[in-house]
């Protein structure tokens, strides 16, 4: 087997290590000029991806059986041929599409990803929301004299969008919120799902209550779909909760009750088996995360379990995909990705105790933290 096939056949941890090794190799052989050029293009990559999304270029190339000419794409998109040719040439030079011959372009592996509507939501979100916030971050931190950001109404996001509202109050009313929800449905796609490691059936035992699974802030309900897919017999015992603005975008999901619920108010579904929070607490600074958890306690029955699905960061050698998310959380939400120690302190402060932590992805260490009242 050659090196490429070996890397492709590796498990998730091996694959990520191979990618990081390739990056290190690339950096090792770069000249100072190459280093500078790498930074020079960072903004352009996502901006041109968005142009490609807006023009439908990725779908067109992905769906076409053969490479398309600039003229054909210009006719299809209405863009001026010369302008389009320059954009396509750039996209091909960075691997977002493939140049097959003079003025003809086809699909690369990246094109196939960018042709998908949900990944396109990600490109929009990174360019439209994350980009402007990150752009403000250096000046914001300089103004605060580089102090910790712990107030979610005083972050680079408020500066970027000229608002005083915290992100999740401001954002659901923005037209671009739908893109974020699309991104959420594919975040970690391809990686192992929590149900592959968490012994759901065993934990459920002979639980007799009406509600088995409450997906709190569950967005488009993709984890409810995963649970009903794995355990069809639980249809009718699964609840999806979120804000009305989010639920307005959610089509009916068979076997799932969709309920408006603000997690800053006491939990309305009583005595369920699992109260599941996926990528919720990492959105909030400690004081707010504690309120979200405390709001669950009065609803918990003797068999209830709180399941927190988030990354549990190791104490050293944190992977760049986790550090990237951590700083994104900090810039927009004044929140953080938490280490094992930080999770334990937070959960304790909320009046809960950890029964166990079940990691389900290597490297990023996405985990289910199982907690009950102290
Ligand atoms: C990072 S997304 C996670 C979505 C989903 N759990 C997932 O893992 O894809 C955060 C979710 O919290 C929801 N949310 C934000 N504030 C909320 C609130 N006060 N009450 C209920 N849901 C809220 C958002 O609408 C969004 O769906």
TrEMBL record:
Swiss-Prot/TrEMBL keywords: Methyltransferase, S-adenosyl-L-methionine, Transferase
Q: Name one GO biological process term.
A: methylation
Specify the O-methyltransferase dimerisation domain's residue ranges: 52-103
User: Which residues constitute the catalytic centre?
Assistant: 282 (proton acceptor)
Q: Which residues form the O-methyltransferase C-terminal domain?
A: 206-352
Sample GO molecular function, one term: O-methyltransferase activity
Provide the protein name: Related to O-methyltransferase
> Organism source for this protein?
Phialocephala subalpina
Source taxonomy:
Eukaryota, Fungi, Dikarya, Ascomycota, Pezizomycotina
